[in-house]
Automatic annotation (TrEMBL):
InterPro entries: Peptide/Ni-bd, SBP_5, SBP_5_dom. PROSITE patterns: PROKAR_LIPOPROTEIN. Keywords: Signal, Transport. PANTHER family: PERIPLASMIC BINDING COMPONENT OF ABC TRANSPORTER, PERIPLASMIC OLIGOPEPTIDE-BINDING PROTEIN-RELATED. The keyword Transport applies. Its main location: other. Belongs to the bacterial solute-binding protein 5 family. CDD domains: PBP2_OppA. The keyword Signal applies. Gene3D superfamilies: Dipeptide-binding Protein, Domain 1, Dipeptide-binding Protein, Domain 3, Periplasmic binding protein-like II. Residues 101-478 form the Solute-binding protein family domain. This is Peptide ABC transporter substrate-binding protein. Residues 1-25 form the signal peptide.
Length: 558
């Protein structure tokens, strides 16, 4: 089951100074709530406890709005760790400037006719930062580690859901030799999956799929990853110093296979928990990029350094079908149709977020020429008149005018959105709703225990495919509204084994329509966005909308 905390998609929120590790909230993977809280506190100088780059060098400086809890790959699940690791390590494939997965440590790969066996061919001369050869065995060790009971990051599913005997290995029922990963030779890594999965290769851009050197990791024991000196690297940068509460400094990795195309020599990630302190640091030329909250967007939106982008993350209302009121479809349809999502995104949030036309986020892969969202259109349009009709019909069916209570988490953005929904339902349905504000943990417990009417929650994409959203509603859990629909489940199960891409896509399009438009199990609200300022001399700094967040590799100073 996907972990509700981080999306590699992955979900503590990074506010970037010049990287996803700083500019975006959200993370790597799919978080059910994708919640990251931004706590107030004085900013700290990374140079207090970390080694500063040589004087005179230009430094790409970004910030994270929460601690970088760990760099241990099989334990890390937050966006901050993902951002740092993504720049110090690399997988078989890597996202480029257009968010497309391109050959990285693997120069190419082949897929068998039955689409179940992937054979990755590694580049010649790959090395770890200490000069040790990087081989296919490093992937076998790393992937087995992530699939084993040793993994504490909640992301074993990202492999075990797909790889032959992955679940069985995690449960201790089979040996490592029986799992569908093997080194054919030093330069050939082969993976066997359970069913055709069109996006499988793209998963390898995620940190969980990065290689690890078994001999080195074993030699460090429980000290591995606790400091920069207890790690070796295979990505564009090496980490020269690291303190969870302060940040990390990075230096270009001369052993990296594509070092010639890495332009910036030095980078740093500063932990700064206070957003206003981060903005002040940016204005003082101490950060390369900063994220703006909605209160600052208006003041800077005409600045040439301003940019807003949408992430692959959707905030939505989850209705509980176990609740006697929300079991009524007309009531659900009334609530969804009564909310003006355009005003919510453009006026209330005003941070780069966009109104939702469906559950699957804007920009996610469709058929190669159109995105999934473009193909499926607007499944939850605002229509005040229709909303009123649905409400009246629902009340007639229930025999009463029900009282509604909306459960929300306690961060400032969610509370503002809840207040807006409250006003919309009052204006368009003529009702007053109660807002029940809880901590993230308390909110989750209420939803898990089926003790709610409807709630605000979110999911961030783990990978660039609609399945990362749609397969969540197949198990009938209370958190997902106790939704049980055989037709829906069949569409998803069939799509998971369909080898014809066009047929598979059609199944997923139908599934989203069933979930959002016909059954109205969820009411999508907005796709989360970010508004940033980036120094005019910084070019090529890429903020990915999913997966590994921010890329230093393509950045350069003009």
């Amino acid at each position: 089951m996907k972990k509700r905390v981080l999306a590699l998609g992955t979900a503590a929120c990074l506010v970037i100074g010049a990287l996803s590790g700083c500019a975006f909230t959200g993370g790597t993977g799919g978080t059910t709530a994708g919640e990251s809280s931004q706590s107030a506190g004085a900013s700290e100088s990374v140079s207090d406890k970390t080694t500063a780059p040589a004087a005179g060098d230009q430094v790409l400086s970004v910030y994270a709005n929460a601690e970088i809890k760990t760099l241990v790959q099989w334990a890390a699940s937050d966006s901050q760790s993902s951002m740092v690791n993504n720049n110090a390590f690399e997988g078989l494939l890597r996202l480029d400037e257009k968010n497309e997965a391109q050959p990285a440590l693997a120069k190419s790969y082949d897929v068998s006719d039955d689409k179940l066996t992937y054979t990755f061919h590694l580049r010649d001369g790959l090395q770890w930062s200490d000069g040790t050869p990087l081989t296919a065995s490093d992937f076998v060790f790393s992937w087995l580690k992530q699939m084993s009971a040793d993994a504490t990051n909640g992301y074993s599913f990202i492999m075990t859901d797909y790889i032959v005997n992955g679940i069985e290995y995690n449960e201790g029922k089979v040996s490592a030799e029986e799992v569908g990963v093997k080194a054919v030779d030093d330069k050939t890594f082969q993976v066997t999956i359970k069913a055709p999965t069109p996006y499988f290769a793209r998963l390898t851009v995620l940190c969980q799929f990065f290689p690890l050197n078994e001999a080195y990791v074993t030699s460090k024991g429980d000290q591995y990853g606790l400091s920069a000196d207890n790690m070796i690297y295979c990505g564009p940068y090496t980490i020269t110093s690291y303190d969870p509460a302060v940040g990390a400094t990075l230096k270009k990795n001369d052993k990296y296979w594509d070092a010639a195309n890495v332009k910036i020599e030095n980078a740093q990630v500063r932990v700064m928990k206070d957003a206003s302190a981060a903005l002040n640091a940016y204005l003082a030329n101490e950060l390369s990029q900063v994220a703006l909250d909605s209160s600052n967007v208006a003041a800077y939106q005409n600045n040439p350094e301003f940019k807003s982008e949408s992430e692959f993350r959707t905030e939505y209302l989850q209705f509980s079908l176990s609740n006697p009121v929300m079991k009524n479809k007309n009531i659900r349809k009334a609530v969804s149709a009564a909310i003006d999502r355009d005003t919510l995104a453009k006026v209330i949030l005003a941070d780069g977020s966009s109104s939702s036309n469906g559950l699957v986020a804007e920009g996610m892969y469709g058929d190669g020429s159109k995105t999934f969202r473009e193909l499926n259109g607007n499944l939850c349009p605002f229509n005040a008149e229709e909303a009123k009709k649905y409400w009246e019909e629902g009340c007639k069916e229930l025999g009463e005018t029900p009282k509604l209570t909306l459960l929300v988490r306690d961060d400032s953005v969610t509370k503002a959105v809840a207040t807006y929904i409250q006003s919309e339902l009052n204006k368009n349905l003529g009702i007053d709703i109660t807002i029940d504000t809880k901590t993230v943990q308390a909110r989750n417990e209420l939803m898990d225990n089926d003790n709610y009417m409807f709630a605000s929650t979110a999911w961030g994409a783990d990978y660039d495919d609609a399945m990362t959203y749609l397969d969540l509603w197949t198990n009938g859990t209370p958190y997902r509204g106790s939704y049980q629909n055989e037709n829906y489940n069949k569409l998803i199960s069939d799509a998971k084994v369909e080898t014809d891409d066009a047929k598979r896509l059609n199944m997923l399009l139908q599934a989203e329509k069933l979930l959002v438009d016909e059954d109205v199990i969820v009411a999508p609200l907005y796709h989360r966005g970010s508004a940033t300022l980036t120094k005019s001399n910084v070019k090529g700094l890429v903020n990915h909308p999913f997966g590994p967040d921010v890329e230093f590799k393509y950045a350069y100073f003009e």
